[in-house]
Structures are given as structure tokens and as C-alpha cells.
Amino acid sequence: MNSKGNQSDFGSIWSFPDRGPWGKSSYRGNCSGHVIKELVQFFRPKKFVEVFAGSGTGQDVAKHLGINDSIHLDLRPEFGAWNALIDDIPTGSDFVFSHPPYHDMITYSGNMWGSADMSDLSRCNSYDEFITKLNLVNEKIYNSLMKGGRHAMLLGDYKQKGVMTSMQKDLAWFGDLEYHIIKDQHNTNSSRKSYGGRFIPTTHEHLLVFKKNEIWYMPVKVTRVVESNIQSRNIATWRDLVQAALESLGGKAELKQVYNKLESSKKAKQNKHWMAKIRQTLQINDNFSRVDRGVWQLAIG
After folding, report:
1. What is the pLDDT of residues 62-87, one digit of tens each?
2. CATH T-level assignment (fold) for domain 230-298
3. Rounded Cα–Cα distance for residues 68 and 52 (Å)
4. Do residues 81 and 167 make contact, with C-beta atoms less than 8 angstroms apart?
């Protein structure tokens, strides 16, 4: 889709090279007004609420479309210093659009406007704190919707200190996912920056649309991270275990060192001939090669 598209052009990948005439273009992190315009024209809400409205884009789009019943909320004083964590979200809406901060990628209070405000989600002390607080906001949004209403949320992925962060994966999902749209990012700082070494810049965002299909029942999906040791897993093969043992020993080790690494593994405890099984695995698998009597290494290349 391009900025001159119409409803028949809708697909799951959106691209708007220009942000349109709406909102404050110098407000960092603002989204293209075409996103909000297309969503509102597609869903045709009776009551439109925007959360995290800082740049004024959604408000300008609503005026452009002649929408009389729209509400725009943000901590920024121009929008009433609305506190997402403690202040109410107007109920009775059938469409909410939100474009939250991407944790501390851009700090808003004390930077883009006014003085520092610790209610600002972009000033959370940690990513976990940010996710916890944004989950609370998203639950409030869901509760504010009428049955059949939708929450469209624009989120990004980003990399910090070599670790990939995916907000759409880490956040709880409230309601039934109706659409997942990939939106191209244009004219971002990362696209203008020159990177040394091998690096793939993130040039997309996720637009998730959740629908409220029940009044009392609220489906919630949460990603759960489980820390598990390969040595305690049934699915791990002897080859997997031997490879991990050699890798942890620097890629080459004496047989007795491999025994020491794996003697407490679940497979070793279940097999009284576990040492013979390790020797057999080393001998028959192309992943390993013997370099000396009783010394084995990972076969590389």
C-alpha cells in the first residue's frame, strides 16, 4: 500500500514513504498519519480514542476526517497531562489506537517536551518495568472497549547492546488478535546512520489489532521464558550432549573430561553404560574427530 491507496489495496504489509501533513513532524517517534487514517477509514468507529497522542498526529487526522467524537490522551501537558497508569481511559469506545514509547529508545518528558516526569513510560528504570507498566495500560484499554471494539497498537523491535528486543513478543496480548500488519519504517535515524561491521538495521514495525469479542471473558496471551539445562532434557540426543560438552571445554578435550561434564546428565543417570555410549557417539559421528589417544575435538568445516 502507498499513501494514495484505498481500502481495496489493504494487505498485511504497509508502506508510507511520507508521514503526511498531520501532527508535529519534528516530534521524534511519531508515526505516519496515514496509518491512523487508513485504520479509522477501514473500521469506521463511532467513538475513537487515541492513547500516547504526543505528536498530535491522531488529533489532526480526526479533524481532517471530520470525526466529532474523538479523544486524544498523553502525559504531554498539551493533552491534559494524562497519566496512563492512574488516570481513566474513557469507556464506551469501539476503537483505540496506541503508539507507546519503545522503552527508553526516545525519552519524552524533559526531552521532547517539558520537564522530566517519572510517570513517563520512556523513563522506566528497566525494560521489565516498562513491559509491566505497559501491560497495565493495555489491560485498561481493553476494559474500556465496548464488545466488538478494537485496539490497534503500533510497536517496534530494536537492538540494544547486541540483544534483540521485541515488544510485540514480550507484551501480554489482551483480546483476540484480528490482524498483524508489518509496517515499513521510513526516514528513521537508524536508516541514516552508518554502521561498522555486520549489522542489519530494523526497518519495520508491528501493527497489531485486537478485538474484544466478550464482555466478561478476557483472553490473555503471555510469552513465558523457561530456563532449562540441556542435560536435563529428554529431547537432547547423545550427540547434542557430547557436542555441548566439547564446546564448553574449548572444542577439544580428553575423554575423562567429557565424562565429568556429562555424568550428572539425565541420559547418563538412565543408562548404566553411559560412558560406552559417549565413546560410541564420538566414534560414529562426523561432528567429532580423534586428535590423539583419548583426546577428541569438534570437527570444524
Report:
1. 999 999 889 999 999 999 999 999 99
2. Arc Repressor Mutant, subunit A (1.10.10)
3. 19
4. no
